């Protein structure tokens, strides 16, 4: 197109006017507010989701996690306190270690177990996670579990004294002691753990089995007199019997008795914070090691587990897998296991752990002697 002045005119866009600019700015503000709203909603939703996940993770689950626990050298000391202290007789020096092994429990009456904690146990080859009801009756409190474990531990120590002294042909005497007082029972505040019971209403109590039928034979409400020794002093305690939970027509006192074995010289135990019956075998070996010139561990690290009867029979225990891992993790060169646990030992022993299986205290001593001599011909699972 040719203009009147003879020059060519090019086309151009007309800039938006003030009204058009205000419309764009308004649309931008609306979009920005919508974006901010969505962002806040997403952020709040994310926080809520994280909070829910954390809450779920912290919820307790009805399981108990069993893990390898610490080892305790029965012929050693902790903070200057001997784990086995023998006085008023000849005691010989020891070398090396004769360790009792333990299991750490998390969950159940010992504190809440969370889902992540349970999961780590499920995927571990050292831990095990089991329903709480597999280990503890419903309603068991921490105090209940602690008292029962303490009673079992004290019983294992007493049995170890009898087993060791019997092995060494040293005379042993026995008495009946209160091993457990049930909370809120007729005996609460009257009888105490460790009381030595010599009689009830004039009837001699010579073994733990004598007590239950005598109490059941009396009617609820009957006042009975316990003849006891407490802190070496003779005491009489009168207890009014309650009703037996299994038969309301029978008397009930709420104590469990056990046999306490003693020798002609004092044997005391210094380990604290450990419970259960499975330390008996290693305590018995520790007593023998201290009372004889023979060095049972030969200066090496030995670990083990197993209940022991007053006559020296080695019995099965729980948590054998965790105890083997505890021994392996702490450098044990030999692990003594109850022969009754052989099925689990064969399936779950850590690679490289040298495990011997024994069924009596005598066999345990003979196994240590053979091992010290360099023999690999040990009793195995």
Count of domain modules: 3
Strand content: 25-35%
Low-confidence stretches: 1-19
Average pLDDT confidence is: 87
Structural class: alpha+beta
State the end-to-end CA separation: 110 Å
Attribute tags:
Pdz3 Domain; Ribosomal Protein S5, domain 2; single chain; 6-stranded mixed beta sheet; 3 domains; alpha+beta
Walkthrough of the structure:
This protein has 381 residues and is α+β, with helices and mostly antiparallel strands. It folds into three domains: 18-58; 68-102 and 140-170 and 267-381, Ribosomal Protein S5, domain 2; 173-262, PDZ domain (Pdz3 Domain, Roll), CATH 2.30.42.10. Helix content is 33%, strand content 27%. It contains nine helices and 22 strands. Strands 8-2-6-18-21-22 form a six-stranded mixed beta sheet. Strand 3 and strand 4 form a beta hairpin. Helix 4 (142-167) runs parallel beside helix 6 (280-291). It is flat, with a radius of gyration of 35 Å. The N and C termini lie far apart (110 Å).
Summarize the structure.
The protein is α+β, with helices and mostly antiparallel strands and 381 residues long. The chain has nine helices and 22 strands.
